[in-house]
Amino acid sequence: MSICFCGYRIFIVCSLDMLFTYVVTGWEGAVHDSRVLTTQLEDPNSGFPHPPAGKAQLIVDSGGINGPTELFNYRHASLRNCIERCFGVLKARFPILQYMTNFSLIRQREIAMCFCVLYNFIRLHNR
């Protein structure tokens, strides 16, 4: 999922324990999320964390769910909630991300990447 800050996009993949596992900064803000994802998936040098062949990436308790469509919707909603919480914590902890227009676009990309690294560091070491 990506989020738009000051005219550019940050594409982020997170784990269920709310850690960023993959971050790409610098796409212009008008680009659709699906284009950013497709580009990352098709580039063998992107380092995108593809799941192992034959392995499911979604692991969510599915008690009380009837049918494959309902199960998919449940898992999708759970993952969506996780990434939205990650973005909320990131923006709350580093409010400068929403007000970086005084910096060049290159500097904005670097700042955003640094804050993603700091976010993970704080999540890992502030328990």
Poorly predicted runs are 58-63
Proportion in β-strands: 15-25%
Quick one: how many beta strands? Answer: 3
Q: Please give the order of strands in the largest beta sheet.
A: 1-2-3
Q: What is this entry, summarized?
A:
Helices cover 45% and strands 16% of the residues. It is of the alpha+beta class and 127 residues long.
Structure explained in plain terms:
With 127 residues, the protein is α+β, with helices and mostly antiparallel strands. Helix content is 45%, strand content 16%. It contains 3 helices and 3 strands. A 3-stranded antiparallel sheet has the order 1-2-3, sandwiched between helices. The chain is globular, with a radius of gyration of 16 Å. About 5% of the residues have low confidence.
SSE blueprint and pairings:
Elements: E1 2-5, E2 8-14, E3 20-28, H1 33-42, H2 68-93, H3 105-125
Antiparallel strand pairs: 1-2, 2-3
